[in-house]
Amino acid sequence: MNPPKKSIRDIDVKGKKVLVRVDFNVPLDKNRNVADDNRIRAALPTISYLLDHGARPILMSHLGRPKGQIVESLRMAPVAKKLQEDLAKPVVYLKECVGIRVQKAINKHKGSVILLENLRFYPGERDNLPDFAHQLAQLADIYCNDAFGTSHRAHASNVGIAAYLPAVMGLLMEKELETLGGLLENPDRPFVVVLGGNKVSDKLGVIDSFLDIADTILTGGGMSYTLIKSMGLEIGQSMIEEDLLGQIGATLKKARRKRVRVLVPNDFVVADRFDKTANHKIVPTEMIPKDWMGLDIGPATIETYCEAIREAKTVFWNGPMGVFEWPSFSKGTKSIAECIAGSDATTIVGGGDSDAALRQYGLDDKMDFVSTGGGAAMRLLEGKKLPAVEVLMDR
């Protein structure tokens, strides 16, 4: 799928100041060093393209949740340091986002990549205030959005700014839209979808969308207990969204009508309390004790799911199969990740906790594509519009 919006490749950037919205919301360790630079490295192709074509990149991002206040521990200095290491070119970090001093600094450092201060130090960012968007636009000639992970939000730096500058997408954004859009249009079959995570409410729209294109949907994690309850089985103390039982019933009827297999786990690792040291055991789905809760899929489910994955030509995965952060309840997520990584299918991962799990198991480079935006990816796959994409110039 060729995205219908213009990218930096579609315009002349030579000699232009290009304001680039990146997603450098990266974790910092206790010494305030970048603990995981995956999002920084994902933006390097766009930054390098701009430099190679004579443009002057000015980068802007949020970091954490400072709520419109200056929070010293959330300044962008550690990010600038890591970016300079990864890019192997000078990076100038400015302690403000807008204003005369920022404009003068940009004009002074013509040969360097500029990184602005944390956007969310300014209340106008999240409120998408026109005045703040206009102040940002005064820094450059062109706006480029390469922050797919924030594209489902309407903020000043990714929506408001497009009213004042020619707006195009970066190479990462382009790749995300091509890959995820292509998944919806024409996946190689059999197409197997693996969905996990805590809430089925976060996935119902995606399930409904996939019922039109998938062959099999494999479910796990917290969301699967609500599905199981809707089938009339008991789930003990496992998490559930009671208000969605009727809606899920309708979704499962649609799946049968569309002849899409929707599988729920047939066994679980259950625990007597929600604790990493809890007593735990493996039980069939229909035998979850009333005072216990499911925290991972069991070995029989792993085998059933892996068999479906091995037969697939395309696999999409979003959401862990259990509480993968705790060793006693991580086998399901790890095993499914290994099955997907080892398959011959085209493998696409929808970001979020799935991405974190892959990195935990050292499998992130075994996938064909890992999205940088969990929430944005799921919204796109639901068939919904992304505000930050809609405002970009059409091809």
Task: Please outline the helices and strands.
Elements: E1 17-21, H1 38-52, E2 56-60, H2 77-87, E3 91-93, H3 100-108, E4 113-115, H4 123-126, H5 130-137, E5 142-145, E6 167-169, H6 171-185, E7 191-195, H7 204-210, E8 216-219, H8 223-230, H9 245-258, E9 261-263, E10 267-271, E11 280-284, E12 293-297, H10 299-311, E13 314-318, H11 331-342, E14 346-349, H12 353-360, E15 369-370, H13 374-381, H14 387-390
Parallel strand pairs: 1-2, 1-5, 2-4, 3-4, 5-6, 7-8, 7-13, 8-9, 13-14, 14-15
Antiparallel strand pairs: 10-11, 10-12
Helix pairs in contact: 1-2, 8-9, 10-11
Mind explaining what this structure looks like?
- The chain has 395 residues and is α/β, with parallel strands linked by helices.
- The chain contains 14 helices and 15 strands.
- It has helices at 38-52, 77-87, 100-108, 123-126, 130-137, 171-185, 204-210, 223-230, 245-258, 299-311, 331-342, 353-360, 374-381, 387-390, and strands at residues 17-21, 56-60, 91-93, 113-115, 142-145, 167-169, 191-195, 216-219, 261-263, 267-271, 280-284, 293-297, 314-318, 346-349, 369-370.
- A six-stranded parallel sheet has the order 3-4-2-1-5-6.
- Helix 1 packs across helix 2 (77-87).
- The model has no long low-confidence stretch (mean pLDDT 95).
